[in-house]
Amino acid sequence: MLAAEAGRVEARFLDPGWAPAWEQALPQLLGLLGDPEPEIRRAAADVLGACDSPGELVLPGLLRCWEAEGDLETRLELVLSLGQATLRAPTGGRGTEVVGLLHGLLGDPQAQIRLAAVHALAPTDPGLPARRLDLVLESVRDPSIELWRHTSSIQTGVLGVHHWTAGLLTGPSPDFTLGLLADHRDDEQRIAALAQAGRLLSQWSSPTTALLPRLAAHLDDPAPEARFRATELMACLGPVATAYADEVANLLSDTAARTTRTRETVGEAALWALARMNDPRCLPGLIELIAGARSGFASASAHYPATDLHHVSLPALDEVLGYLPDHAEQLIPSICGRLHTAADDRVLNRLCEVLADWGPTAKAAVPQLIGLLEDDRTWTAAAKALAGIGRAGNGARDLLLSRTPAAGPHTELAAWAYWRVGGEPEPALEALVRGAAERGRPHPALRKLADLGPHAAPYADRLRAMTADSDPWTRVEAAHALWAATGDAGAAVPVLTTAVRDLAQGSYLPVMLPALNHLARLGQAARPAALLLLNVATQDQRLRSNGGWRGFAQDEDIRTAVGELLSASGLSA
After folding, report:
1. Is the pLDDT of residue 3 over 60?
2. Residue 134: half-sphere exposure toward Cβ, Cα within 13 Å
């Protein structure tokens, strides 16, 4: 590890004693290539491949070992090390010989030697893996792939070797993944192929058409993990996978569980996929979960970074429900029943957030929410829901108003909810302007302040000043609030346009989605921003900052928002 790191960092970060110490250790390390134990020989070859010593110092020793080595796993390690050493000039008189040797190994009888040669040659010939895709696929699907578990540098089985090799094939081409998804009798091979499908689909949109039928073919895979992964990817793709809703629905009763800590079942993945497709066949299962049935759905789902891995997971129940406002009428009785009995404040808060997100569609829950307003433990959750529902919660006005004077840190929430259900603006103005002036995170208060429209006009100068804040969230929400208060699009559009400008180059940040939504409300005035983003809809790379299912959802949301902006500006993608 130290030797590899020393080759990567700048010289100024190296300890002055490193170079002489490594120079002294190198002959001893070369001597270990002849150790009686193959594990030692592999480790030595691994270090010699990763170090920063020029090829002319290590190639002769590696070649001598190659000529004498009979252990297959060690030979794999040597092929990789020879390839790495040829990249470190000067390579001396043996460099050309090694390159010729590696090219000859592309025809070796052993599949993994051929794969190792592809990896060794790819840094100087990046097109080789695509040209020899037949060789690559034959190797990674061969039972001898297990040899890599015993190497020093790779130490992984089917899934890891698939991922390692996929790194040689950049871009959106589905050919490698399609080859992996072809029928294979080994469960681990099929599961790893689906992992690669997730990797590709999480980064690019265009492979979807080619891969969807192959994913659907794995919905009845004999391995539960393969069925789960195929179904979870159907959920990630959501609206574009609706042609396979019947096949997914057939899995609702599949109780086979993954070997994870939470033991998620295939049936739960199917329920999630149908929710993403807005298919009512998910409702009976969700009603059971709302009532408190034990499940693999997390109480709060994890956030993963956007990497070249697809993180396979289920969302939290409230996140599933968030996709189903069209079915609120069937779900609200169960939600209200759970609100009545919930002892867990987290459950209560998340269900109320669902009702808030559903907006006026959730008006049938208002009587239950008014009851919760009377309880000091539950009133804040109910206030959030009522604020989202809006005027249909008018009957809660007096209770909300009574919470504003003595609500302490929740004064802002009580006053804003009072306004949203049809109250007077003054309590909300006072609380929100105070909240926006506080240090820390003023943008939630600014977002609420925009709801008050022209009532906030007396604070226009303060809002205008905040459009130059160092925090992008504050700038975006202040610009929107300024426009809502004054109708001054001239001040708001440049700020909001700056926030979304990098989207045209494929760069995505979460603040861009609210900025786009605000721009769409400005209509024709937002045309300068719309002109910048004309080509976003045709970008193949997914626009996301998260991994897992959230990355797919972010990509959908941002593209929808761009489409709405273009439409509002009189343009089309």
Report:
1. yes
2. 1
